[in-house]
Design a protein that fits this description.
With 115 residues, the protein is mainly alpha-helical. It is built from five helices and two strands; from the N terminus they run αββαααα. The chain folds into two domains: 1-70, Phenylalanyl-tRNA Synthetase, Chain B, domain 1 (2-Layer Sandwich); 76-115, no CATH class. Helix content is 53%, strand content 10%. The longest helix is centred in the middle third of the chain and has 20 residues, at 56-75. The relative contact order is 0.13.
């Protein structure tokens, strides 16, 4: 199930705006009712429960993609190490699909597919 914040961000983007902590805040009172919109000061209407629910699938997709991209980021080499690999691939004449930089990047992307 997608987080409320994700679904609200999608709703805000659908209304041609971006998340702004000064215009919306979420709260969980730890009373078993979960997270809710505490404040809303955008120029367009606060989403209804059914509008929020309509973003469930898109929210799940966005969260899955975010997880994949985050995992890729941890598995990629630093930019300095990647540049060194590129340098050696160029120097060795392997700036193609057999080079060490390409094979590293491809392995990370293949292991963490966007779907």
């Amino acid at each position: 199930m997608a987080e409320l914040s994700t679904k609200i961000k999608l709703y805000i983007e659908a209304n041609s705006a971006t998340w702004d902590n000064t215009k919306v805040s979420l709260q969980d009172d730890s009373d078993g009712n979960g997270v809710y919109i505490k404040t809303w000061t955008y120029s367009f209407s606060k989403p209804t429960d059914s509008q929020i629910a309509s973003y469930e699938t898109a929210g799940n997709t966005a969260e899955a993609l975010s997880g994949v991209l985050s995992k890729r980021q941890t598995e990629y080499l630093t930019w300095q190490e990647q540049l060194d690999k590129l340098y050696h691939d160029i120097d060795d004449g392997k700036l193609n699909k057999t080079g060490s930089w390409y094979t590293h990047i491809k392995a990370v992307k293949d292991a963490n597919s966007k779907g």
